[in-house]
Amino acid sequence: MPQTRCDRISSIVINLLGGLTLGLFLALTLIMMDASNIRTLIAGLEAPRQATLAFVLGTSAIFACGSVLTGTIFARIDRA
User: Fold this and answer.
1) Considering the chain, what is the average pLDDT of its residues?
2) Separation in Å, CA 74 to CA 8, 19, 31, 80
3) For 11-33, what is the mean pLDDT?
4) Whole-angstrom Cα distance, residue 15 to residue 24?
5) Of 45, 56, 57, 68, which one has the greatest count of Cβ atoms within 10 A?
6) Where are the alpha helices (DSSP H) in the chain?
7) Residue 1 pLDDT > 70, yes or no?
8) Cα-flanking dihedrals φ and ψ of residue 58, to 5°?
């Protein structure tokens, strides 16, 4: 069954939100676990809140991009 444009956009948005959620969870977990002294590194900066926000948003964005690309590839394979 051919997908409409709305179905494709919906699939992309779902993958994007899933990737953002996964990246957010991972970043916050890494900060809370203090793996590789990330919390200590961030706390030692001049603006720790901005650094934390940048770390969390950057990690979430990377996961979101990966999730969208992977979801798009799997959708194209499914269609073929």
Assistant:
1) 90
2) 12, 15, 32, 10
3) 93
4) 14
5) 68
6) 5-33, 38-43, 48-79
7) no
8) -65, -45
Q: Do 67 and 22 meet the contact criterion of CB atoms below 8 Å apart?
A: yes
Q: What is the spatial distance between Cα 4 and Cα 71, in angstroms, rounded to a whole number? A: 16
HEC string for 16-31:
HHHHHHHHHHHHHHHH
pLDDT tens digit string along 43-53? Answer: 899 999 999 99
Place of tokens 């990966």: 66
Rounded distance, CA 36 to CA 54, Å?
A: 18
pLDDT in tens, 23-43: 999 999 999 998 788 888 898
Q: Identify the CA nearest to 21 among candidates 75, 80, 67.
A: 67
What is the spatial distance between Cα 69 and Cα 38, in angstroms, rounded to a whole number?
Answer: 28
pTM of the model: 0.81
